[in-house]
Design goal:
Number of helices: 12
Shape: elongated
Helix content: 25-40%
Oligomer: single chain
Structural class: alpha+beta
Strand order of the largest sheet: 6-5-13-16-17-11
Strand content: 25-35%
Number of strands: 25
Radius of gyration: 28 Å
Distance between the termini: 52 Å
Largest sheet: 6 strands, mixed
Length: 522
C-alpha cells in the first residue's frame, strides 16, 4: 500500500493529541499563548516530532472550536475572524514552527472531470509546515469542513448500483451544504496524492522529485480520486487520466488492490449520460442491458462499460468495506463514445456482486491459476459444435476429493445454445470445454458442491461470438501493474533516503548541542 502521509505512521500516533483537544475548555483559550500551552501538555519533552504534534493540535482545534463555549480575549477572537488557513499559519508561527501559505488552483466539489480547466477552477490557499527538515502539506479548509448533498445538473442516470433505471430523468442539481468536521486525510497528505487535487502556482510546492512534477495540462487531465480510494489502498490501473475513450462502444476500468483487502470491499457505481452530448430519444430503459459488467480476480476489479448511444457519460465509483455502513465516493471519470456498442443487448444473467470472471468464491473452493484473466471467453459457433474453447484451472490438492464441479451455458431466453463439459484429473487440473451452436452472448456458469449438498454458482464467464478488445486491454493493464510495482520501489527508496537525511540532521543538532555544552563547561 502506497504511503498516504508524509510522517512515519509506525512511529507517530495522534490519538492522544486528538483526544486531548476534544477536552479543551474556554479556560484553556484565554489567549493564543494559553491555547498553545494546552496543546503542548501531551507532547513529551524534547520529542523530535514536536512540531508535527503541535500542528495536529492546531488543526483539530480549528475543526472543533465552534463546538466550544468561547470566552476569549481579543487576540484569539480576532484570529477566529480570519480564514482557516490564516488561523493555522499564524498559530504555527506563534508556536515557532516554520510555515508557508501556498496559493493555487483546486479541484473542489464543483470540479467536472474533462470539463474544468485551469481558467475555470477556483483558486484557494493551503499551507505547508516544516518538521525534521521535511515539509508537510495541510489543507485547513478541506481538513475541517465538507460539502454534502452537492449534485451536478444536466446528467441523466442510466444505471445505479447495477440496476437500470425505470425511466430517464435529468438531474436538476443541488448546491449542497457545508458542514464542519475533522478529516485527517488532508493533514500531511503525501505530495503524490495532494497534487492531483490542488495545483500550486509555484511548482516547487508540489514537493515532488523533478521527474514527477505535473504541468498545468497534466493537472487538468489527471484522474482525481477521492480519499476513500487511497484509504482502502486501491489504485486505478486502467489509466491516469479523467477522460476515457471508448472502443467499439465499450470501455474498461480496472482497480487494483491487495487481495486480502479487495475481497472485503463492496463496490457500487452510477452511470449517467451527459445532456447535450448525444440523443437518448427513442431509447427505452427496459430494452437496455446491464451496462456495467463487473469482473473480479484476487487483486483486480474490472468494470466493462457498454454504451448504447454516442455521446459522453459520467461513471462514478463508490466503495466501502463490507462491515462499514457508509458507501463513499472513490473516483469519477468521463467516457467519450464516438460509436455505440453494436452488441449492446441484455446480458444472459444477472451476475450480482460475484460479477463475471474468476471470483473470490472460486478461490475459496480451491481453484487458482485461471487460464485467462479476463471475463469473456471468445468462441466461434457451428451447428455441429465442432469449434470448442477451453478454460483451465488448478484445484488445490487438498480439495480434489472434497469438491465436485459442474458447468452450464445459460441464455437469457434461449435454450439449446451450446454444450459444456467439466472434468478434473488426478493431478488437479480442471478443464471446462465449451461449444456454441448459435451466435450471441451467453453465460457460462461454473458451480461447485461439497459432499451431497446442492451445486452453487462460484463464477461466471461471458461466452461471446462477437469481437472484443478485452484481451488487448488486459495486456495493457498487466503492463501498468508492472509500472506501479517499479514506482512503489522507487518511492520506498526515496522515503528511506529522506528518513536517513532527517536522522543525520538530528544527530548533527545533538552533536552541536553537546559541543556547545562542552565549551560552556570549559
Amino acid at each position: 500500500m502506497a504511503k498516504l502521509y508524509t510522517y512515519d505512521e509506525r512511529v507517530i500516533s495522534f490519538y492522544n493529541m486528538d483526544e486531548h483537544m476534544k477536552k479543551i475548555t474556554s479556560h484553556n483559550m484565554s489567549s493564543v499563548a494559553s491555547l498553545l500551552d494546552y496543546i503542548e501538555e501531551v507532547i513529551p519533552k524534547n520529542d523530535e516530532n514536536k512540531e508535527i504534534y503541535i500542528a495536529r493540535g492546531i488543526i483539530v482545534w480549528i475543526a472543533n472550536v465552534d463546538e466550544v463555549d468561547l470566552r476569549v480575549n481579543s487576540d484569539l477572537q480576532n484570529l477566529l475572524d480570519k480564514s482557516r488557513v490564516l488561523i493555522f499559519h499564524e498559530l504555527c508561527r506563534k508556536a515557532g514552527i516554520e510555515c508557508e501559505i501556498i496559493k493555487g488552483a483546486a479541484k473542489a466539489a464543483q470540479y467536472i472531470p474533462g470539463v474544468s480547466t485551469m481558467d475555470t477552477l477556483p483558486h484557494m490557499s493551503w499551507a505547508t509546515f516544516r518538521c525534521n527538515n521535511m515539509y508537510h502539506l495541510v489543507n485547513p479548509q478541506w481538513a475541517t469542513s465538507s460539502l454534502v448533498g452537492f449534485e451536478r445538473e444536466g446528467e441523466t442516470v442510466l444505471e445505479n448500483d447495477g440496476q437500470l433505471v425505470q425511466e430517464f430523468e435529468e438531474s436538476a442539481g443541488c448546491t449542497g451544504v457545508n458542514i464542519t468536521l475533522f478529516d485527517e486525510f488532508w493533514f500531511c497528505t503525501h505530495p503524490r496524492i495532494y497534487v492531483l487535487h490542488a495545483f500550486p502556482d509555484n511548482s516547487k510546492w508540489q514537493l515532488l522529485p523533478a521527474d514527477k512534477i505535473l504541468s498545468p495540462k497534466d493537472f487538468e487531465l489527471a484522474l482525481t480520486p477521492d480519499p476513500q480510494l487511497f484509504i482502502l489502498g486501491l489504485e486505478v490501473v486502467s489509466g491516469k487520466k479523467c477522460i476515457y475513450e471508448s472502443t467499439n462502444g465499450r470501455c474498461w476500468i480496472d482497480i487494483m488492490g491487495d487481495p486480502s483487502t479487495l475481497k472485503e470491499v463492496n463496490f457500487k457505481h452510477q452511470l449517467s449520460f451527459v445532456s447535450g452530448t448525444g440523443d437518448l430519444t427513442g431509447v427505452n430503459p427496459a430494452d437496455l442491458p446491464q451496462l456495467v459488467m463487473k469482473t473480479q480476480t484476487p487483486d483486480t476489479v474490472s468494470l466493462e462499460v457498454r454504451l448504447p448511444v454516442t455521446g459522453e457519460y459520467m461513471l462514478k465509483i463508490f466503495a466501502r468495506l463490507i462491515n462499514d455502513a457508509e458507501l463513499k465516493n472513490c473516483f469519477e471519470i468521463r467516457i467519450r463514445c464516438n460509436e455505440a456498442d453494436p452488441a449492446c443487448r441484455k446480458l444472459p444473467i444477472d451476475a450480482g456482486d460475484m460479477g463475471f470472471g474468476f471470483s473470490t468464491t472460486a478461490s475459496e473452493c480451491g481453484l487458482s491459476h485461471p487460464s485467462q484473466n479476463y471475463a469473456t471467453l471468445k468462441c466461434e459457433y457451428s451447428d455441429s459444435l465442432e469449434k470448442k474453447e477451453t478454460l483451465k484451472f488448478k484445484v488445490d490438492p487438498d480439495r480434489i476429493d472434497e469438491v465436485e464441479f459442474s458447468s452450464e451455458i445459460v441464455g437469457s431466453d434461449e435454450v439449446d445454445v451450446g454444450v459444456t463439459t467439466t472434468h478434473v484429473d488426478q493431478k488437479g487440473n480442471l478443464e471446462i470445454v465449451t461449444a456454441l451452436k448459435k451466435e450471441g452472448e451467453f453465460a457460462l456458469v461454473v458451480k461447485a458442491r461439497e459432499a451431497n449438498t446442492p451445486f452453487k454458482p462460484i463464477m461466471n464467464y461471458l461466452v461471446s461470438t462477437f469481437e472484443n478488445d478485452e484481451e488487448t486491454h488486459g495486456l495493457m493493464v498487466a503492463g501498468r501493474k508492472r509500472e506501479l510495482a517499479t514506482e512503489k520501489k522507487t518511492e520506498e527508496k526515496h522515503t528511506l533516503v529522506n528518513q536517513i537525511k532527517a536522522n543525520l540532521n538530528n544527530i548533527q543538532k545533538e552533536i552541536e548541542q553537546l559541543l556547545a555544552q562542552a565549551e560552556q563547561m570549559s
